[in-house]
Design a protein that fits this description.
Helix content is 52%, strand content 6%.
Length: 142
């Protein structure tokens, strides 16, 4: 069964523009009709679900594309594929969780003061004293 882009968008909950973007990035594929309209295999629904799930846990489209490229013949990931990929991504996700927890804990101090006072902000860096520790928000780094 072939789906139009509208049917795929409706059934997947993903906007037409995002589906075209995914296709441009090689995350999904379509066949073209003689009138140059896209037609997607029904299995594309699972592939889109895989992409969306991976995005929700914080993976970039580049990382997702690399994972999908490991599958033979561009097929949809199976349960065993997802298990293998999730094991590969676990250290990266654990690091992301540590960063989110640190951010939560640091921001709680600022938000808890009620006024965002620079004298009591746990993220304050007067006179850029922390510049030697590197670029960015170093107090939010684990």
């Amino acid at each position: 069964m072939a789906l139009t882009i509208g049917e795929l968008a409706e059934r997947s909950g993903v906007a037409h523009s995002a589906l075209r973007f995914y296709e441009d990035r090689g995350l999904i594929t379509s066949e073209r009709t003689s009138g140059n309209q896209r037609r997607y295999a029904a299995s594309t629904l699972r592939r889109v679900a895989f992409v969306r799930t991976a995005q929700r846990v914080g993976l970039s489209l580049e990382e997702i594309g690399e994972a999908l490229a490991q599958l033979p013949d561009g097929r949809t990931p199976t349960k065993s594929d997802w298990h293998r990929l999730s094991r590969q991504w676990r250290p990266r996700l654990d690091e992301q969780i540590r960063r989110i927890e640190l951010l939560r804990d640091k921001l709680d101090g600022c938000i808890g003061c009620g006024c965002l006072s620079m004298r009591s902000c746990s993220l304050m860096n007067p006179d850029d004293r922390l510049a030697d520790r590197g670029p960015g928000a170093v107090l939010l780094e684990p």
